[in-house]
Structure formats: C-alpha cells, structure tokens
Amino acid sequence: MKIVLFSRVPRWYSFKNERLASHLSAEGFEVVGVVVEEVPTVQALREWTKKLGFGVFAKKVGQRLTGKKNISSDEKQNQEIRFSKVPTSPDVYNFASHNSPECIEKVKELSPDVIVLRGCGIIKPAMLDVPKIGVINPHYALLPDFRGMDVTEWSALHGEPIAVSVHSVNKGVDTGTVLKSETIEPTAEDTVGSLRDKSATLAVKLLKEALVDLREGKEFPENQMNEGGRQFFKMHPRLKDLANQRLQLFSEQTGKISENNAKVKANLEIQN
Description:
The protein is of the alpha/beta class. It has helices at residues 19-26, 41-52, 54-66, 75-80, 101-110, 125-128, 151-157, 192-215, 237-252, 256-271; strands at residues 2-7, 30-37, 92-95, 114-118, 134-139, 146-148, 162-168, 178-184, 230-232. It has a single domain, classed as Rossmann fold (3-Layer(aba) Sandwich). 43% of the residues lie in helices and 18% in strands. β1 (2-7), α1 and β2 form a beta-alpha-beta unit. α2 packs across α3 (54-66) and α7 (151-157) crosses α9 (237-252).
C-alpha cells in the first residue's frame, strides 16, 4: 500500500527517520513521499512552543540536536507502545499550499492509496479525491464530542477524557468516521503540553493500526458525515492556564478524568 504523508513545517525540517514514516515502512507500507506546506520558521516555532509549552518543546529540541530517540514525555507510555522501526529517508516535496494546483498534480503523480495528514489545515475536495482509498487524520480528542482546534486543551478544561482518534477526512471539520480511538491516562505531572506530546506518540500507533485494517480489506467510510458534538476554536491563554490547573485538581482529587477514562475505554474497546 502506497502512503503519502502531509505535514506543515518549515523547509529545513528533516524527515530522515521520521517516527511515523519509519514505523509504517517497518510494517511494510511504501511511504512514497512527504508533502510539506511550508510555514515560516518564526511562525512554526511560535506555534510549537504555544502547543507544547516551553519545557516540553525545549526537551524535544534537545533530543533532536543530540540524536536521541524521539520519545514522548511519558516513559511508561513509550514502554507500553513499542514500535518496530527501520531507517527511512522519504522524498520531500515543498509547496506553498496543500491545495495548490501544483501540489495536487504532484500527489497525483505519486498515486497514493492513502494520504495521512499530520497537523495540516483544511484539505479541499480536489485533493481529497486524489488517493485511491482516502485520507485519514489523527485528532487529539474524542470524536464527535470535541471537533476543531486546541481540543486537548478543551477536553482538559471540561474535565473530559484525553484521547486520540484517527478518522476519515471529508469536506467537514473533523466530521469523518472514527477508525481508531484510545484514551490517555493523565498523571499528576502532566500539562496540556505534555499530553499533546503523549498524543503524538499514541497517534503513530493508531494510524498504523488503521492503515493495517484498510490494507486487510476494511471498507473505507466514504462521504459519511458525523456532525454531532461541538466545534471548538483556538483557546485563549488564560483558559489554557485554567485547563492546566484543572488537570492538577483532578489528579489531586482522585481524578474525574480517570473515572471518565475507564468508562470511555470500555466503550472504545467494543467499537475498535
């Protein structure tokens, strides 16, 4: 099965031995290219720092500079989610927009079975129609409850389970069918930034599982619209501070999030 990864990073960003590409290659998938929508360096650094928090961001930069493995902030999670890896150096194609005519033509040339999105903006129908099977995306919350942006933060603020959902992509905003979903158990040390880091690790596992299912013949849910739940938008910094405070409060009081996680996990095991 031929896979194209979509990403949104500066031109200098290296995909050599990139985590998802490496694990997919080890699983027998053919990663035929990474298609990048370029963003300015300053903008990217600002976004990464805002999402992860300075401490988690600095740790990850240090890992890259020293050549250490790209691991999440939770050592236990990294032990539980074990991946096979192979060295990879996929071809990278840079464009001003994932929806530009030039980008669409290049992706048609690559002829992927599936496009996998990683931190991208809205993909328009002309691109969604290119892959033979479809487009999938990891979303850092339960769907359809939390659609839109900053959903790890909004989940924490509402005291709801922290989760990752891999879903099919259609013309709506996170309205595709959920293919895989799993919750994350927060610790007393967690922030929304560290939970985003853990979500990135879990997303690799769930994306691989979803692609294996498709390779083995699972039907892709084309054009199904699941518009339930609520759509969320960028969170104000003051609300993000409150979300972090609530994470700490829940962990100190035996955890509303943990209790909800147990209920949701049981339901997800049935669905998956």
